[in-house]
């Protein structure tokens, strides 16, 4: 018997199975099970096995490569880092309050998140709006987008030539007589973290530009024409017509930037290795530093857990809020 | 177009899809099997012993030494290098857990070696060491830095000294001579600075170089204190350590040192070009200087940093990498045979001629005349050899304190705060080490 003989084709649900139960409209007590649930219970074994087989690869992959390591990391974070490792309860998590390097790492991570969300968003939007439908727009876009094709490590090597004490930036400043401004850009906190965020923005703005351009091209011209006819100024057209229609793209740009800011590693590692004196570490770098260089796998696991929770919580809260507001 | 859900079994589209999925599944299974397969780089190759190293530029040297080893042991050397020292440590520690470790591996001496040996994954080389000592090919005083709980686990790969290289032509032009006293050193630095030459190379770039000046200054103020400090018998907050940091800070504030992010790979070129006057580094730096076109003894020379006090005992910081043999080596007999002949003079001549550095065998004269002269001076004047800071204390302590010193070099933390942090870490890490040992 063919599978399709007993099962409606995907995408052509039978009547009565199209409305999943909404959390805002819970099934009243005593109401009979939804048709969908009834249909699922009534599925023959073979159908259920087939569904399971299709689901299995994804479930296995996510389980084996994501959930199981996370559970192992969570478990490891509860043990100390002595040679004969013993149960330490939440000692590794207390380091977030007592270890100066980790406190600085949290500060840096917050700076990275703010910088990587704001800069690519603002710059990407500005560049996309300014280069959309201009004669030299293609060339300008190419210049902005090219760094995005480079790996983080390559970007770091390029910026290393610029930012070291003997680098291009200080030489330029000295050439134009601004010797007093020349200093070790990567040596003094917080300027070290700030310049690395700027270097990251130089690379990350490209993708924001692409996404905003796609969004701009999707805006119906008649909405802008209508606004013009109503006497709206260019700023009012941008603020009240363009910007609201770029909302879906903005959600994606900010969401991506948020995750990128929280997991930033490669640029920092190549430029400063988190130094000098652990001053430029972010949580991702601290996790590596503690686990592999200081041989503190318990502390490293605790940082990994905290970082994961922050990334998940931030992404979930942000996306949930944004997507709910759209009604999707 | 056939939709996904409506294709019927037996139809050409369904068959095509099933074949595609089957092929995809088989491909994934094949890749997974290949991924789980054992690596072939450490597999046995007749007539050679594999050696894991953290420096690809030394591969040719290992091959040359291997050609000298082959007539003695029947095995040449097959280097397997990992260019990053950090990832090399991790990969090596993980490989030792497998049944396919390399036949020999390069490691550091001192506490780095003790950390690896206490895992029980290295072969006991005590018999080989005793044989070397009897032949006079090894210094008995070095045994402690190669041992863990009385057994030897490493044979020295080379012996480097931390000395100050200088450009002879620049010194001659400025009518300077290599300083024999602390005052003469300060005079050299003053004259160089006056002539717009940065007197000293000092950097925290690459992390470990941050402790080069610390170990040098502390040991040149009081070598006994240095030994006590790295052995956990003195405190970082004691006066000698504070004096060392004050001198260092003075040098930095006078502009006598390169910026803390100076790339030491450019040190040879900077010395040759007369942009820096003196380069404190291991004698293995001689290879780079020669490679940059400077002739040893003519264009560059080296001296041991003078002691701060006139009556202080002379000392020199030494570094010695080691060769170890994993218990789970693929061809362990090849590894043991080659380590057992490593210090033989013909092998050492081939190796040190390549390395341009000192041999751990006292009877072998280094090929580089500058290094040979230093070695003779150290032996003649009975200069005390001190183990390098990086290997002299538990690895976690060294790692953390090196980061503190990097913060000090960039003036992000004061001398007091730096030393307090180092002392607090020392107390913790020594306690941890002793507890783990117990």
From TrEMBL, chain A:
- Localization per Swiss-Prot or TrEMBL: Cell membrane
- Record region (Disordered): 1-42
The reply on keyword Transmembrane is: yes
Q: Does the keyword Glycoprotein apply?
A: no
Q: Which InterPro entries has this protein been placed in?
A: ABC_transporter_permease, MetI-like, MetI-like_sf
Q: How does it sit in the membrane?
A: Multi-pass membrane protein
PANTHER family recorded: ABC TRANSPORTER PERMEASE PROTEIN, INNER MEMBRANE ABC TRANSPORTER PERMEASE PROTEIN YCJO
**Stated family:** Belongs to the binding-protein-dependent transport system permease family.
Write the protein's name. Sugar ABC transporter permease
Automatic annotation (TrEMBL), chain B:
Q: Can you say what this protein is called? A: Extracellular solute-binding protein
From which source organism is this entry?
Streptomyces iconiensis
Name the Pfam families on file: SBP_bac_1
- The organism's lineage? Bacteria, Bacillati, Actinomycetota, Actinomycetes, Kitasatosporales
Taxonomically, the superkingdom here is Bacteria
């Amino acid at each position: 018997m063919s599978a399709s003989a007993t099962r409606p084709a995907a995408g052509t649900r039978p009547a009565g199975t199209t409305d999943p139960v909404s959390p805002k409209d819970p099934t009243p007590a005593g109401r009979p099970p939804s048709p969908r649930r009834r249909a699922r219970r009534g599925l023959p074994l073979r159908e259920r096995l087939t569904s399971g087989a299709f689901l299995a690869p994804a479930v296995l992959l996510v389980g084996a490569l994501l959930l199981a390591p996370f559970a192992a990391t969570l478990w490891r974070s509860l043990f100390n880092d002595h040679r004969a490792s013993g149960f330490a309860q939440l000692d590794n998590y207390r380091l977030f309050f007592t270890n100066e390097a980790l406190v600085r790492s949290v500060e840096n991570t917050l700076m990275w998140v703010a910088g990587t969300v704001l800069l690519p968003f603002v710059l990407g939007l500005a560049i996309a709006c300014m280069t959309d439908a201009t004669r030299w727009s293609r060339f300008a876009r190419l210049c902005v987008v090219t760094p995005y094709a480079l790996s983080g490590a390559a970007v770091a090597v390029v910026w290393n030539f610029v930012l070291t004490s003997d680098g291009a930036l200080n030489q330029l400043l000295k050439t134009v007589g601004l010797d007093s401004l020349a200093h070790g850009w990567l040596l003094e906190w917080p300027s070290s973290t700030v310049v690395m965020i700027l270097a990251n923005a130089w690379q990350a703005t490209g993708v924001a530009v692409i996404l905003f351009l796609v969004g701009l091209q999707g805006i119906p011209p008649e909405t802008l024409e209508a606004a013009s006819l109503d006497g709206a100024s260019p700023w009012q057209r941008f603020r009240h017509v363009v910007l609201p229609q770029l909302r879906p793209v903005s959600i994606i740009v900010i969401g991506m930037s948020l995750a990128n800011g929280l997991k930033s590693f490669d640029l920092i590692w190549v430029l400063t290795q988190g130094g000098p004196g652990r001053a430029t570490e972010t949580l991702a770098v601290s996790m590596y530093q503690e686990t592999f260089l200081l041989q503190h796998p318990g502390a490293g696991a605790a940082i990994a857990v905290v970082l994961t929770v922050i990334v998940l919580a931030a992404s979930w809260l942000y996306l949930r809020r944004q997507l709910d507001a759209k009604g999707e | 177009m056939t939709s996904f859900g409506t294709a019927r079994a037996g139809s050409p589209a369904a068959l095509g899809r099933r074949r595609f999925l089957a092929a995809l599944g088989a491909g994934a299974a094949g890749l997974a099997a290949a991924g789980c397969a054992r690596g072939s780089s450490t597999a046995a190759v007749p007539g050679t012993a594999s050696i894991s190293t953290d420096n690809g530029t030394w591969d040719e040297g290992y091959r040359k030494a291997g050609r000298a080893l082959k007539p003695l042991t029947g095995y040449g050397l097959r280097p397997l290098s990992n260019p990053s020292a950090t990832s090399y440590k991790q990969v090596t520690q993980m490989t030792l857990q497998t049944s396919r470790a390399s036949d020999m591996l390069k490691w550091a001496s001192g506490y780095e070696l003790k950390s690896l040996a206490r895992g029980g994954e290295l072969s006991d080389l005590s018999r080989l060491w005793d044989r070397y000592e009897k032949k006079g090919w090894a210094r008995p005083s070095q045994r402690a830095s190669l041992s863990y709980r009385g057994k030897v686990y490493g044979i020295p790969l080379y012996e480097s000294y931390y000395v100050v290289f200088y450009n002879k032509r620049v010194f001659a032009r400025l009518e300077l001579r290599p300083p024999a006293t602390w005052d003469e050193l300060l005079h050299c630095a003053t004259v160089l600075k006056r002539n717009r030459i940065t007197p000293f190379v000092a950097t925290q770039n690459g992390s470990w170089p941050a402790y080069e000046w610390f170990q040098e200054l502390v040991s040149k103020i009081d070598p006994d204190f240095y030994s006590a400090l790295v052995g956990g018998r003195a405190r970082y907050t004691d006066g000698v350590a504070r004096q060392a940091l004050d001198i260092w800070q003075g040098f930095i504030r006078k502009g006598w040192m390169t910026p803390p992010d100076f790339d030491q790979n450019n040190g040879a070129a900077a010395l040759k070009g007369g942009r820096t006057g003196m380069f404190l580094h291991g004698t293995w730096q001689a290879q780079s200087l020669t490679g940059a076109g400077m002739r040893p003894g003519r264009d560059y020379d080296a001296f041991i940093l003078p002691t701060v006090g006139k009556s202080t005992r002379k000392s020199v910081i030494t570094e010695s990498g080691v060769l170890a043999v994993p218990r789970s080596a693929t061809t362990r007999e090849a590894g043991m045979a080659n380590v057992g002949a490593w210090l033989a003079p013909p092998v050492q001549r081939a190796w040190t001629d390549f390395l341009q550095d000192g041999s751990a065998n006292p009877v072998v004269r280094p090929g580089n005349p500058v290094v040979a002269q230093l070695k003779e001076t150290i032996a003649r004047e009975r200069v005390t050899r001190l183990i390098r800071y990086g290997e002299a204390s538990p690895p976690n302590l060294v790692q953390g304190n090196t980061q503190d010193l990097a913060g000090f070099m960039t003036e992000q933390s004061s001398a007091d705060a730096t030393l307090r942090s180092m002392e607090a870490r020392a107390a913790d890490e020594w306690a941890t080490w002793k507890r783990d040992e117990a």
